[in-house]
Amino acid sequence: MPRGGNNRIPPSQHLARGTYRKDRHSELPTDPITPPPLAPDPPTALTDRGRVVWDRLYPLVTSQGIVTELDRYIFAAYCQFEAFYTEAAEHVRDEGCFKKPKRGESAEGVQHSKWYRLMRDSLAQVKSLAAMLGLTPVDRHRVTKAKIEGQTEDVTNKKPVSDLDRIADVRLLR
């Protein structure tokens, strides 16, 4: 039975974080299971705006091996909530954040419009799903990347830097 405290981290997580050491951690499995890559066609439940987000992000997440077929519906939900956020933000830009009181209602007490509430709630979901998928600069190094075909380089003890980091113009501390 392996020993370790409550906060023991498996070797695969050490490898993903760039802290793996052969002399300190147990051996990595020699034949890791690689999930299939993400299929290019979006789920039919996505709206047109959700499909636009899918088409925009699909090349980035598949080229980096961040999202696989196992993450399909989480990625689809991310795309849909980003589309909801964009649509709600357009309405908020045009109509404002606050609801106008109806005739006979008191103008005291501020009420947010339904579009503002949708925008706020969608942003919370986007942030949560992005963290799960490793799409934020902070969470990107925490997510284990799937092995990309033809990749032979040893990634032990290397800090991951991806195209997504460069696009966001994020400098990872070395």
Walk me through what this model shows.
Residues 32-43 have a biased composition (Pro residues). This is Phage terminase small subunit P27 family. It comes from Gemmata palustris. The protein has 174 residues and is mostly helical. The protein folds into two domains: 1-31, no CATH class; 33-167, no CATH class. The chain contains six helices and no strands. The chain has helices at residues 11-17, 48-63, 72-95, 114-133, 137-140, 163-167. Helix 2 packs across helix 3 and helix 3 (72-95) runs antiparallel to helix 4. The radius of gyration is 21 Å and the shape is elongated. The two termini are 35 Å apart.
Strand content: under 5%
- Integer-rounded radius of gyration: 21 Å
Biggest sheet architecture: none
Number of domains: 2
Quickly count the helices. 6
Distance between the termini: 35 Å
Share of helix, binned: 40-55%
Shape: elongated
Topology:
Elements: H1 11-17, H2 48-63, H3 72-95, H4 114-133, H5 137-140, H6 163-167
Pfam families: Terminase_4
Biased composition (Pro residues): 32-43
Protein name: Phage terminase small subunit P27 family
Short characterization:
The protein is mainly alpha-helical. It has six helices and no strands. Mean pLDDT is 77; it is low at 154-158 and 166-174.
List keywords for this structure.
about 170 residues, mainly alpha, 2 domains, 6 helices, about 45% helix, elongated, disordered C terminus, Phage_term_ssu_P27, Phage terminase small subunit P27 family
